[in-house]
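Example 356, ligand zinc ion.
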Amino acid sequence: MRLWVLGLLVVGCTCKETRRSDAGTRLRKVDVHVHAEPAAVPHLLALMNTHGIDVAWNLSGGWPGSGLEDALAAANATNGRVLVFANPPLGMLRQGADVNAMAEQLRVAHDLGARGVKFFKSLGLGARWPDGSLVAVDDPRLDPLFEQAGALGMPVAIHTGDPKAFWLPATQENERFDELSVHPGWSYAGRPVPTWSALYEAFLRRVARHPHTTFVGVHFGNDPEDPGAVSAALDQYPNLFVDTAARVPELGRRPEVMRAVLAKHPTRVLFGTDLGVGVGVGEFDLMLGSAGATPPGPSDVAHFFSSTWRFFETNDRDFEHPTPIQGRWRISGLGLSREALERLYSGNADQLMRSR
Ligand SMILES: [Zn+2]
């Protein structure tokens, strides 16, 4: 009996919010972009229940022998509500790690239960070869990993680059000045790293080189400042999907372009938040797409989700976006139809996982 009740608690999503789109049945939601420490998964589940998220993809699953087993054990206790992505240890390349052996380990990760692969922005900006050179996003020496992911039916979520403003001087004129003031280390201005464009082009070449591997370009295809360019990439690469994680502030600046992208590619955009639980920025154990100087409180969490729904579901204009630290501008909503919301919130993600 107790187990049965527990099962109900885990499976059922007790959603407290009622919005315009909830007029009929509640919309199922799959958040394809969260980060959660194994010990924080119960906290993640509580947030999912409060804010109406049915399933979350935990992109911070670690690697066999290095966290993945714990991440999977925590996910397994959620009765399918948390799926886990594995993270190839690119930091080991500096010590001469063998990429073919890494690709074999990816099979182990898959057999253990990992459902996808996530590459962090360290690919292109931090990971290095033994000679000290940066590992390029499209370096052919990494091909076995991407081919293996495709062969195993594991989608590859890939974060390349960062907001374009991070490459500009961190002055008052920089539109991300608030964020760069709190996190000066996030600025690439004057640092010996590739340009934003060089990284983005390498990302597209990577997607092009593995037509049998499904890619999720996180943070709206790694180019949220230019949804039109992302639309062109979606035209060109049928194996590319994009998520909305931590980029509602950008996307809400150009609602009319976003509406056009979604109308043209209704099956290729996935809902994601970049919620981090137990994996915050610095010492905080909660991340809402970014982080300010103080830890987020309950009202910040409520605002994060409510303004996200407001963006996708209403035609409201000129309101505060989910993550104030990301910039002082205001955004306008998309007013998506219920059918479009069903695809964005869960249909596309469910289809993507089912078809692997
Ligand atoms: Zn993330």
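Summary: Residues 33, 35, 245, 274 surround zinc ion (CB under 6 Å).
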